[in-house]
User: What shape does this take?
Amino acid sequence: MDIGANIGVFSLKVAKRLGDRGRVYAFEPQKDLVGAIRRSAFLNGIGQLDGSGKISSYDLGLSDRDGDVGFHIPTNGHLGGARVVESHEGERIRVVRLDDFLGKDFQCDLVKMDIEGHEPYALRGMDRIITNSPNVKILFEKIGKLDKRDADLESFFVKHDMVLFLVGRNATLTPIKCGEIASSSGNMLAAKRGDSELEELHRSLRCPFALARGASNHRGTSNRDLCSGPDLISRPVLVPQGRALQSENSWGS
Assistant: This one.
């Protein structure tokens, strides 16, 4: 699943690698960007202009409830950075609980999530899906402190017995201890404790595997030293809006 799919760079990369073995579900509340996802999927032969196909795309946001919420879109021309806000004025988007939207028996293997601090709410809305998915991996971005939301993230991962890593350059993984998520910043990977597929995930995505037990968790490291995107999927080449793309750790101890 690609949550906060933007123009669909990661959706396209994963869909191409999947072949006939699965499907990508892409969620992006900005209709113009969803249009770019659908055009790119169509031109690459892996989706239709109506959003169906190997990439199933939806102009929706995800949260812990169904309804409409405020949405701030930056005016500086940057395609990312849009976020859910409390205001009842301006842009409005529809959000859904993924557990209800995809059904009680849905399972997934990989979740990539970049929704500007709304991750705890979206995760609560997909609680049953995470429970149903024994080998799920969750890649998400957390920049800086999120106040109460840091505690919410930690509670969610503890509930599901998931271990957490900071993703460094060249896809290196550094364990994040229980209680350290608030002071950690960057791209993170969560996986269920004892998941034997973690190392295989690195090999299949052609990324170096370096699990640095007890190493620094990059506190105080500048943003340029952290991943600019989930390196476990690989760095994309972005295209302008409207164009189409071718072609044992110690958590819980």
